[in-house]
Design a protein that fits this description.
The chain is 39% helix and 14% strand. The protein is α/β, with parallel strands linked by helices and 404 residues long. Strand 5, helix 9 and strand 6 form a beta-alpha-beta unit. The N and C termini lie far apart (53 Å). The N terminus is likely disordered.
Length: 404
Amino acid sequence: MISRRKMLKMLATMPLIGGLAGSQLIRKPSGARLERPSYSRDFFTELGLRPFINARGTITRLSGSLMHPEVIEALNYASQQFVNLDDLQDMVGERIAEMLNCEAAMVTAGAASGMTLGTAAAITGKNPEMIRNLPNLEGRQREVIIQRTHRFSYDHAVRNTGIKLVEVDGPHELHRAVNQRTVMMLFYNAASEHSVSKEEFVKIGKHHNIPTFNDAAADVPPVENLFKYIEMGFDLVTFSGGKAIRGPQSAGLLFGRKDLIEAAKLNHNPNADTIGRGMKVNKEEILAMMVALEHYLARDHEADWKRWEEWVERINRSVRNVPSVETEEYVPPVANHVPHLRIRWDEERVKITPEEAREKLRFGHPSIETFGGRNSLDISVFMLQPEEVGIVGRRVKEVLEEAV
């Protein structure tokens, strides 16, 4: 039997295990496991899974990010005690609102859940009958306005409430689209094109007294983004909890106007007969999300950035002497907004395509997840552990040199 002390010790170091490599379920060649601390059971191996080095970034399908020990401690603390869930959500929400300088906040089941709950709040307010009947409300279909260039797969979370998305191009169309059925205006922060700027979007929303919602799910770093959109005037903002903030992967933040957050909580678990009842956030996730935000805001972000730049340069030094290899450091404009390395080569001299190189890294020993397009192999150092930087540089060099 495992003692409570040993179990807590195991859980406290669990972030080092890594994520799941779902596409490599049965492949378990000798030497494929990463060197990790010892545990009483190797669960992933038992399940036929391979952990991997994450040189891809905070991707949900690759299990997001790793939680810091302080966050694991909060999870463990909450897991051993009972507490009223409504009270916990209220008190944690108050603490988060203080940290983010906004009226109110809540912990959601990820940013997509935040989008559904925020839209529900804009539709129902605190009306109990509407909350019970959503998405099948009487009368004409409610509408949410979105820029045509902002349509994206996650707007399904908004459509879950039964609304109709009305697409517009430019401020003039946006003004004209507002009518009595308009309940909200949705802004997709990561869109590559904006026919209406954030500032103009907010201005138009306030002119028509329509709530504005900014989906900024993956848009930290920089840390300032946690504050700027509320300061800009957006009524609601959502962020993922399990990306850069490194809270539980199944948690997120919804914050902004107090009346809308209060309405969102009425549409949420643990309230029965609500659209958000299945979006359960447990006490462990609520507390851990608060601690993760505390930890993230307290970090030395300049030191983090410098370390990422140093890691990119270490990998760069490992690979740039391979014949015909050219490298480029870059920073994506949003989402995983940290230093990355892009590697290109002449396929006449290094006889392997970027996709083949990614496959060799994925199925090598240890497994390494990278990304890129047809013409490059790209590496994110965002989620690397210190001991993994040299491994990534060495393995990429080996894969390319073997093809010379």
